[in-house]
Amino acid sequence: MRADLGHLLDEKRVLLCVGCGGVGKTTTCAALGLAAARRGKRVLCLTIDPAKRLAQSFGLASVATEAQRIEPRVFAEAGLDVPGTLTVTMLDVKSTFDSLVAALAKSEEKRQRILDNVLYRYISTKLAGTQEYMAMEKLYAIKDDPAYDLILLDTPPTSHALDFLDAPERLVAAMDSAAVTWFLETFRRSGTFSLNLLQRTAATVLRGIGHIIGGGLLEQVAAFVTEVNELFGGWRARARQVSTALRGPDVGYVLVTSPEPMSLREVSFFAERLVQEEMAPSAFVVNRMRGVPDERALPEEIARELAARGLPSQPDFVARALEAAAEERRLGERDRDNLASIRWATEGNEAPSVVHVPAFPRDIHDIDRLILVADVLAPCGDAPAR
Ligand SMILES: Nc1ncnc2c1ncn2[C@@H]1O[C@H](COP(=O)(O)OP(=O)(O)OP(=O)(O)O)[C@@H](O)[C@H]1O
Ligand SMILES: [Mg+2]
User: Domain 6-381, what architecture?
Assistant: First the structure.
């Protein structure tokens, strides 16, 4: 079992960082981007909502939806030798969705009608799953761009990692019924219409009851249902193409988890689903691992340590420091034991890489700390000679 991801940076064209909310997907994605650029790759990092301070440390006022290349001077100032390039861009759900409609609509007039439609605006900004699907859609659109050797995709915070995998199918299904759902949500409170009406086709129903509720809104819904039904043929085919692309041999999945049992359970489940779906996980990153100190701290050592730092070394301080050290050890042992019981799902005979990233005392919000993570994920020394 390999304990670094360097080989993936060399072998894959696309790497997706997936996992539950807050486990460190964006950090992993950025660190892998840095590591790959240090190996001479031209990297595109498609990220979602990175910490403002991290963006600033790369010399960006903020991460914008247009691609921005990190200035070589930023790396030089951090004392890094970066022969490759790192370009970052942020996912913009609405504009990705608009481009998709533009690509699928049969005429400019139809495109404009859909984009102007009030229900479309709701779906393209608020419908659950849209962000996940658009991340994949964007990936599909850029994955063959010859300007890059490696594309890293950060994924949106999902409470459940499986949400991401199911996103294209769920979104298409939701689109089918979106008019109905939206209609229900919007008009339930009015109490003037019967649910039975919805058993007929949505467009007819919506037109039919227009006179009950009235207003241009209903016409918009009816128009949308008709227009989108026309798009759906293209839409479904597109969702299938995205799905197929995500199963290609040049696409890798980096599953990020914390060492907490719940997160580990979720990631194991997710990994099994990936295997079933023929998208074998390429690597697991266990982020924020607490280490187990090699030796137990002795009271006299702690007293010496405290004194050396100009801190009080009376017995009660030493006792408290010992308690803190014991607690640290206990937490480290707990993380280690939690991991010991995990069987990392994989396809075929090849065991996936599992990398443990330590819990750093502070957030990873600057380039110096990101390098520490990058060095754990893909040590610079193992880069192939250029
Ligand atoms: N190993 C680590 N040690 C210390 N801090 C960390 C570590 N990994 C990540 N962090 C910090 O934890 C926070 C969450 O990390 P990150 O934003 O990468 O998670 P995420 O999985 O992308 O979250 P979300 O699901 O909300 O998008 C950030 O402030 C980051 O700097
Ligand atoms: Mg994130």
Answer: 3-Layer(aba) Sandwich (3.40)
